[in-house]
Design a protein that fits this description.
five-stranded mixed β-sheet, 54% helix, 21% strand
């Protein structure tokens, strides 16, 4: 019981430290006039917020070894929607056959979801009044299958490989996984 209390306190302190870093990055971003660099700062802030949210959930959790994955993704999505101040309705539906996930896997998964949801919010729904993102997480006996799909109209990217895509690739490798991306009737990522 004492160990649990100490661990919760550590998670609380890490979360607070990450919030301080977020605040410092936000303060610094106010001095940037160039919109492109300001957006890069915002993306970095969102990545730190995604990690802070993990520690917040661990602090609140009864079982420190596992976190409710659906609840985490719902919280992360709500934070991202608020962060980007989108003036259109974007609905995010999460279905998960996995109730809890070990904390070791949560950090790379959290950052993957952060990239996917952020990209959809920023790029997919520009010419639409309504956006929809569907996330399905299936538990097969030997692996986890994850499908992320939006109904957006994506512009063709001028870059061959963005930092976000490289990050998704690297994080998927950390989870001993692989993914495919298809672009028709929105964008779809399928992870194993």
């Amino acid at each position: 019981q004492e160990k649990t209390i100490m661990l919760k306190e550590i998670h609380h302190r890490v979360k607070n430290n990450l919030q301080v870093i977020t605040s410092l990055l936000r303060l610094q971003s106010y001095e940037i006039e160039d919109e492109i660099h300001k957006n890069l700062y915002q993306e970095s802030i969102n990545r730190v917020v995604a990690m802070a949210l993990i520690h917040e959930k661990m602090y609140q959790s009864e079982n420190l070894a596992k976190i409710d994955l659906k609840e985490y993704i719902d919280s992360l999505a709500a934070d991202l929607l608020k962060s980007y101040s989108i003036d259109k309705k974007i609905e995010i539906n999460v279905k998960s056959e996995i109730e809890n996930i070990k904390t070791k896997s949560l950090v790379p998964l959290a950052l993957i979801f952060n990239e996917l949801i952020s990209n959809s919010i920023k790029h997919a729904f520009e010419n639409q009044n309504y956006g929809e993102i569907n996330i399905d997480i299936l538990n097969n006996q030997t692996h986890i299958a994850l499908e992320y799909k939006d109904n957006g109209e994506w512009k063709t990217s001028t870059k061959e490989n963005s930092f976000g895509l490289e990050l998704i690739e690297s994080l998927t490798d950390q989870l001993s996984g692989k993914f495919e991306r298809s672009v028709s009737n929105g964008t779809c990522y399928s992870f194993i």
